Amino acid sequence: MARLTDRGLTGGMDPILVLGGTGKVGSRVVSRFNQQGTDVLVGARRTGFDWLDQSTWDPALAGVRAVFVVPLDGATLTGEFVSKAVEAGVERVVLLSGRGVDVPGYGSDDNTAGLTHVLGEKAVRELDIPWTILRPGWFAQNFSEGFFAPAVQAGELRLPAGDGAATFVDAEDIADVAVAALTEDKHAGETYELSGPRALTMAQVADAISTASGREVRYVPITSEEFIAESVRDGWPQQDAADFADVIGAIRRGLDAHVSDGVPRALGREARDFATFASNALWSAVPSPWRDGRPST
Question: Which residue numbers delimit the NmrA-like domain (predicted)?
């Protein structure tokens, strides 16, 4: 792996830039390229890239042939960035978007994270270079290394999801699809809806984690108002808490229960099951639930 400050690459081909290269999906994409011997650059604050500092964009894009774009939630900078990428000579863009972008009622019109994806997808579709859009549902890894991990460690998932179910997708599958889209021509112009192979309620998730981890975890359904109030007490900004409650509400309303065909369509195999994820996860560490100042979904 090369950092943005170290451009002495080997291999004879221009590198691939992975924004969010230290996150749940990006780090796995970087790992796969490292294993393949593909030159890859990590775009993250610790390597010199900052979404909010556009002076870092040009150095990150110099000599790059393809970009995996993990947008900054709550910001509308994706369009400006991909336009600059084309100007810099980038030949392919793969965007990590989200489920529900074009589903009426999935989220409120003023949900800032949703707006990030809506405008980002629009900008990418208008590019004159090959592009691919990935729309994953809820990450299974949110329970082991993301937003839900502290609650799992505490043994109680208090969420406004009701009895709704979601087809949680393994970040390993998302990374596999991203790598394929970044390196294979057949994915150009595709929008892949990514999910796991079956829907689980939060109670079923808690049971699966309990079985795999040996730790008792239970699900406690609460209202959106209770979730927002508890999150604010824990130090969340009010708007972030409200936005996240809004997204979780899609589970309660049954909008996350459908199985999507993106993984088998892109990779020619079935998506990993949540039970497989749970059996392979490390349940001992409690990571921060925040990414770049915002909860990651």
Answer: 47-229
pTM confidence score: 0.90
In tens, the pLDDT along 65-102 reads 999 999 998 899 999 999 999 999 999 999 999 998 88
For 5, 7, 14, 20, 25, the CA distances from 37, given in Å and listed in that order, are 19, 15, 13, 20, 19
| Parent domain of 278 | 2-287
CATH number at residue 221: 3.40.50.720
